[in-house]
Amino acid sequence: MAESAKLEEDSLHGRVALITGAGKRLGRAVALRLAQEGADVVVHYSSSADEAGEVVAEIEKRGRRSVALRADVRNVTKIRELFQQVSHQFGRLDILVNNAANFLPGRVDDTTERIWDDSLDTNLKAVFFCAQAAAPLLKASRGVIVNFGDLGGMLAWPGYISHCVSKAGVIMLTKCLAKALAPEVRVNAIAPGTISMPGDAPELEAEYIRRAPLRRSGTPEDVCDAVMFLVRSEFVTGQTLILDGGRTI
What we know:
- By secondary structure, the chain is of the alpha/beta class.
- The protein has helices at 2-10, 25-36, 49-61, 76-90, 113-141, 161-181, 202-211, 220-232; strands at 16-19, 40-45, 66-70, 95-98, 144-148, 186-192, 240-243.
- It has one domain (11-243): Rossmann fold (3-Layer(aba) Sandwich), CATH 3.40.50.720.
- The protein contains eight helices and seven strands, in the order H-E-H-E-H-E-H-E-H-E-H-E-H-H-E.
- Helix 2 runs parallel beside helix 3, helix 2 (25-36) crosses helix 8 and helix 5 runs parallel beside helix 6.
């Protein structure tokens, strides 16, 4: 009986999660993992309609409710409309995963205003305004936010200046939101290093393996495990969990 009660407690059954950028790559993996753990899942996408539809179909096969909702997260009005749709269709929100991001190159001499704005709007501005729009729903459910940073927010990459600045902003924003939304809402972040995905360049993975003490790159499962840890860890807020195989030590 005790084991059965613990399993029921750990299940996310009855919870609703929204993952931004959930049609592809890590967003897709996290969406499917949350569904596997029992949550109903809102699959946000911007341009990947077909892929988002496939994720919804996979979630429904797991017996969970799911819907794909499109929004340009660089646009505050569209963000607010997105969360209004979530409230209308599901009546609640328990988990927000801010995953949508870009990775734009740009050095001191060739970063344009457009590159700068696209980096900051997608990677940082969207995270804040999604959190702002989600806050009333999350406070009602005593929910949780997990933001995606990456090592670029901690290490200086001269070829990706605006990206590094945007991800460093996510780390500080996570702390600010954690204080501002406490005690009802917990806010944490993850900072993945190199995560191996199908189609990635093998030479980049080999270089990462050489640098990391654990001598391997990360997997989508590693990322999903970290997200689930932060979703369930009720005494953790304002933290950034680094997933880098030890590279930054």
